[in-house]
Specification:
Layout: H1 7-18, E1 43-48, E2 51-56, E3 62-63, H2 69-80, H3 82-88, H4 102-106, H5 117-124, H6 132-147, H7 155-164, H8 166-177, H9 185-196, E4 199-200, H10 202-213, H11 227-240, H12 246-252, E5 257-259, E6 264-269, E7 273-278, H13 289-302
Antiparallel strand pairs: 1-2, 1-7, 3-4, 5-6, 6-7
Helix pairs in contact: 1-13, 2-3, 2-11, 5-8, 5-9, 6-9, 7-9, 8-9
């Protein structure tokens, strides 16, 4: 792609073209605070070697939700090691929904992968520290070193998830029963709810995507995590990052990506770009309708599928 390519023009076109798809989605109903979002919002950002390009609602804050699973997994891999992590969680995709409990009973009695809720909760239990605050500081500290700014959580969303997260609580206690979770169940859940409530915007996510595209090196040129940890996480993003829509997304878009039910999608074109989209209206699998349509369009134009 030529260095004079008009990324700004392309992103503006993509937002205008894809925003209308919001009417095909719905806001999530099971976390009350997330129902307050404007379903018509749409934003896309792209971090390149030339800098950040963005269009639409890219400075609207939203919570990471399941995108946070990427960062707790990076911390666990770096702090506890590959063998410890994969003793508690598998590495296979699932055709079930992200909050399903079925396979915990019928498979190897451990979560199939770290991108579903059960797997992410198990990973959270592996984060070292003497308190929830200390463990959370490892996750927030990683994000702060990438973004070079303080990290905050949305207190209302955190409390809403803590109060209504009955399915996640059931998953956590089941994991404890089958020796799949270390430590105190409620403390692990508290860490999980906190990480899901971290506030970001599209521009932030594009910078994070570039950090992953650069194999763990931040914007200042400092290595933050190992290239091997980034490789593992990026692979999970390809196979499991879009829940049970990951296979279809790999065919249509073809890049490592992770979605969250607040409407964000983090995308990575290895060695080239960090990508991010925002659109709160979700499809039946929990992925942003507008976000997927924008990434499909960008992949068509820029030919950035890794396959």
């Amino acid at each position: 792609m030529s260095s004079v390519f008009d990324y700004s023009g392309l992103l503006n076109e993509v937002v205008q073209e894809c925003r209308k798809h919001a009417e095909r989605g719905q806001l999530p109903s099971y976390i009350p605070e997330l129902k307050k979002a404007d379903p018509q919002m749409a934003g896309v950002a792209m971090m390149t070697a030339r800098g950040l390009f963005e269009a639409g609602d890219t400075r609207q804050n939203f919570t990471l939700q399941s995108i946070s699973k990427v960062f707790s997994l990076l911390v666990a891999l770096e702090r506890r090691g590959v063998e410890v992590v994969f003793a508690k969680v598998g590495s296979e995709p699932t055709g079930d929904s992200f909050n399903s409990i079925v396979k915990l009973e019928t498979s190897e009695q451990k979560p199939l992968n770290p991108m579903i809720n059960a797997g992410a909760i198990a990973v959270c239990s592996l984060i070292p520290g003497a308190s929830v605050e200390e463990r959370f500081s490892l996750i927030s500290g990683l994000l702060e070193s990438i973004l070079d700014r303080p990290i905050e959580i949305d207190e209302a969303v955190y409390l809403s998830e803590k109060e209504t997260g009955h399915r996640n609580r059931a998953l956590a206690y089941f994991l404890k029963d089958i020796n799949g979770l270390e430590g105190d169940v409620e403390e692990v859940l508290d860490l999980y709810f906190r990480q899901c409530s971290i506030l970001v915007n599209c521009a932030d996510l594009a910078r994070i995507g570039m950090f992953l595209a650069a194999k763990g090196i931040n914007g200042a040129g400092t290595p933050i995590v190992s290239a091997n940890a980034v490789r593992l996480v990026s692979t999970f993003m390809v196979t499991c990052g879009m829940y049970n829509g990951s296979g279809e997304f790999a065919i249509q878009v073809g890049i490592p990506a992770k979605s969250g039910i607040s409407g964000g999608i983090l995308g990575v074109v290895p060695g080239q770009y960090g990508l991010a989209t925002y659109g709160p209206a979700l499809d039946r699998k929990g992925n942003s309708v507008v976000g997927i349509s924008m990434l499909r369009r960008l992949s068509d134009v820029l030919d950035f599928s890794i396959f």
